[in-house]
Amino acid sequence: MAESAPKRLKTGSGPLIGTHNGHFHADEALAVHMLRMLPTYRDSPLVRTRDPKVLETCHTVVDVGGEYDAARNRFDHHQRGFATTFPGHATKLSSAGLVFLHFGRAIVAQRVGGGVAEDAAEVELLHGKLYESFVEALDAHDNGVSLYDPAAVAAAGLEKRFSQAGFTLGAVVGRLNANWNDAAPADAAEAQRVEDERFERASLRIGEEFERDLDYFAAAWLPARAIVREAFAKRRDHDADGRLLVLEGQSVPWKDHLYTLEDGHAGVLYVLYPESTKADAKWRIQCVPESKDSFVSRKPLPEAWRGFRDGELDAIAGLSGCVFVHAAGFIGGNLTFEGAKAMAVKALAT
After folding, report:
1. What is the mean pLDDT of residues 235-256?
2. Is the CB of residue 228 less than 8 Å from the CB of residue 258?
3. Same domain, yes or no, for 33 and 110?
4. Per the record, which residues fall in region Disordered (predicted)?
């Protein structure tokens, strides 16, 4: 005889986590995973139910129960009047945002390691960056918030040119739900077990993506900040007006840090960097976009250079050592730093 879902799931040594059963979403899937990243919840069992009496037995409840009370570990966002947001953002939180708001610093500090405190400056920076880059999209998706104001888009007469395709974060989880016409076990407990297994896979899947972003921002993005800051401080060594940023040694993730350092005063137009750490590495010249996600450059490379390569490009540009300029004009290359800088200087004057 099959066990009841609550009995079957109440195994393990950690505090019991509760969420709703039925169709699952990215926000509670991530919320459960984030909790389990912490030592307290690492071995926590999960019960998926809407039964208030069962939820009362849970140590922590996410996305169900109609209550937000961090002191009692209740993290629902569906109740009337709920309007909590992440500091500095307008998007109403989902269960993922609530868990990240209260537990995110501990998760980040644990990942950074070295005994860093939860209130350390780097933890605070990463906490905000991860919310902005990952969690907020889930909050918006679950609360029905569009990326752009639909009324403003309609008033401007804008239409998509093509389907974006690919997977949104919500789709990563949503597609792991059962299809409407999938056969389901006749036994209720067995059907719940199968549904719970799907949820666990979904929670792990979205959690893997979250951890990849966390590791990237902690191990690669954050260390790049000091390198970009140093290059920004030296930008007038290469151009009196500070329009060139030179990353010596190797390229690093620079866009976020540059925009922060500029503090709303756009000035850098081109970023120069070597393709690798080899002594004879070729150099790139990349245009700074108007914004991080924009394909529009502040100042594209000259139209006459675009789509040409090598000697043909040398002749057109009146320079030497040119390797290429992309047909869209946002990036080019040269055999040497001096050549890449000469391309930048000429492009600035065009």
Report:
1. 95
2. yes
3. yes
4. 1-20
